[in-house]
């Protein structure tokens, strides 16, 4: 069984529609794929409607969090998408994305980069606006060669010249909200140092005490040493270990299924969840 628990669609900052994502996941030989768009569940219905036979969909979201001034992401799986408190928090985070993007555009304009809101809005195509859309605009303008090259101190990384903060949830509150909605929490790419400052292990230990279920270990932004260190930490804290592609379509070079989760860990995630259940494919449309 091949399980990829971290993928994005055009509902946030991926380039595959939700329907394309599940079809491509099946074509890539996956048995299970998770749709984890940023702070939104808008892609669920289209993904379920197109779900090929033989592929199971795990519904989820990647929640924007911040602790001690450090930005981090929390993968939430199989929660009730209509639970009022978690829904309200997701909407608060998502609604702050537009003024944040406009603030980054203003800073870029001040740096002499002629990016416009209309350009970023076109790139987002109705998805939850994020830094990757602004980064794509910089690629279109020839300012940087790739989206990844925009995430530096010169441009859009945390503390960068064009960086603007947005509302982000305290991770301990995120854990509480997700748990109350029947979901499971996994800290996404916790050692991705190239994205900026990372959360200290002591803080991760506190999150484990607060109900964190796991950490994402096998990820393109973790080298071998980081993965070994994280596996040791997970064992010490009795946390589940996951692996995922963090697929964004053509916006990143990583492919679906490049990194996967042990089927036994996937089974444990489904056992812990009470807010929703994995959706088996019936053939799609």
Secondary-structure element sequence?
EHEHEEHHHHHEHEHEHE
Helix content: 25-40%
Distance between the termini: 24 Å
What's the number of helices? 10
Structural class: alpha/beta
**Average pLDDT taken over every residue:** 95
User: Whole-number radius of gyration?
Assistant: 18 Å
Number of strands: 8
**Shape by Cα distribution:** globular
Q: Largest sheet, described in full?
A: 8 strands, mixed
Low-confidence stretches: none
Strand percentage lies at 15-25%
In short:
The chain has 285 residues and is α/β, with parallel strands linked by helices. The protein has helices spanning 18-27, 44-49, 84-95, 97-110, 117-124, 131-140, 171-180, 201-210, 224-237, 263-272, and strands at residues 3-7, 32-35, 56-67, 70-77, 184-187, 214-218, 240-243, 279-280. Strands 1, 2, 3, 4, 5, 6, 7 and 8 form an 8-stranded mixed beta sheet that branches.
């Amino acid at each position: 069984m091949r399980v990829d628990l971290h993928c994005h669609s055009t509902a946030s900052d991926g380039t595959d529609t939700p329907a394309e994502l599940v079809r491509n996941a099946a074509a890539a030989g996956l048995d299970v794929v998770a749709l984890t768009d940023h702070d939104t569940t808008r892609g669920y219905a289209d993904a379920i409607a197109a779900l090929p036979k033989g592929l199971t969909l795990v519904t989820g979201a990647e929640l924007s969090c911040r602790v001690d001034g450090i930005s981090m992401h929390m993968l939430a799986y199989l929660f009730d998408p209509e639970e009022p408190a978690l829904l309200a928090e997701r909407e608060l985070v998502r609604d702050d994305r537009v003024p944040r993007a406009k603030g980054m555009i203003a800073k870029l304009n001040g740096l002499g980069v002629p990016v416009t809101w209309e350009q970023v809005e076109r790139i987002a195509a109705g998805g939850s606006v994020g830094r990757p859309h602004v980064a794509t605009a910089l690629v279109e303008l020839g300012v940087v060669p790739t989206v990844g090259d925009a995430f530096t101190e010169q441009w859009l990384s945390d503390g960068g010249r064009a960086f603007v903060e947005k509302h982000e949830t305290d991770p301990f509150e995120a854990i509480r909200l997700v748990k109350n909605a029947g979901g499971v929490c996994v800290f996404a790419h916790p050692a991705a140092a190239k994205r900026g400052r990372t959360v200290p292990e002591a803080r991760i230990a506190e999150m484990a005490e607060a109900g964190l279920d796991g950490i994402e270990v096998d990820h393109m932004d973790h080298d071998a040493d980081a993965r070994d260190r994280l596996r040791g930490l997970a064992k010490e804290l009795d946390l589940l270990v996951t692996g995922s592609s963090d697929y964004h379509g053509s916006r990143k070079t990583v492919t679906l299924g490049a990194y996967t989760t042990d089927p036994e860990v996937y089974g444990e995630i489904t056992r812990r969840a009470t807010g929703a259940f994995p959706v088996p494919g019936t053939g799609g449309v």
